[in-house]
Amino acid sequence: MLHQATCVAIGGRGLLIEGEPGSGKSSLALALIDRGAELVGDDGVALTAAGGHLAAAPAPATAGLLEVRNVGLVRHEPRATCLVALVIRLDPEAPRFIDAPESTTLAGVRLPLVRLWPDSPVLPLRAEAALALYGT
């Protein structure tokens, strides 16, 4: 299934980034790539359930492209696939504290979900911390 989201792999673990158009999905991916993450797909990823896990792969139409706002489409070598460990949802109504992640189901696979406030200079650090704490 094609899912409207951006995905990067950090240490081989997939971080699926969801949010409204213009919320900063691509910008977060760019910042994470600058910190060593690998691009899987921007603004659309192919999701496949297998063995109780969710695999993400680049969408064929946009494979290897990352939108850099005010610059244009930039080529990045995409990672062929990864298993999604955590879903981040960029949400201006994100709670200040959480005791545990929420959950979401994609392609029949239940995954942990953490909402992050999108307008933060330390958003990539928060995303990495969420993956370390709550990623499966």
> Which residues sit in consecutive blocks of at least 5 with pLDDT less than 50?
none
CA radius of gyration is: 13 Å
Level of helix content?
10-25%
Oligomer: single chain
CATH topology call: Rossmann fold
Mean pLDDT: 96
Shape: globular
| Biggest sheet overview | 9 strands, mixed
How many structural units, i.e. domains? 1
CATH superfamily: P-loop containing nucleotide triphosphate hydrolases
Assigned CATH architecture: 3-Layer(aba) Sandwich
CATH class value: Alpha Beta
Q: Tally the helices.
A: 2
Structural class: alpha+beta
Strand content: 35-45%
How would you explain this protein's 3D organization?
GO terms for molecular function: ATP binding; phosphorelay sensor kinase activity. This is Serine kinase. InterPro entries: Hpr_kin/Pase_C (IPR011104), P-loop_NTPase (IPR027417). The structure is a single chain. With 136 residues, the chain is an alpha+beta fold. The protein has one domain: Rossmann fold (3-Layer(aba) Sandwich). The protein contains two helices and eleven strands. Strands 1, 2, 3, 4, 5, 6, 9, 10 and 11 form a nine-stranded mixed β-sheet that branches. The radius of gyration is 13 Å and the shape is globular. The chain starts with a strand and ends with a helix.
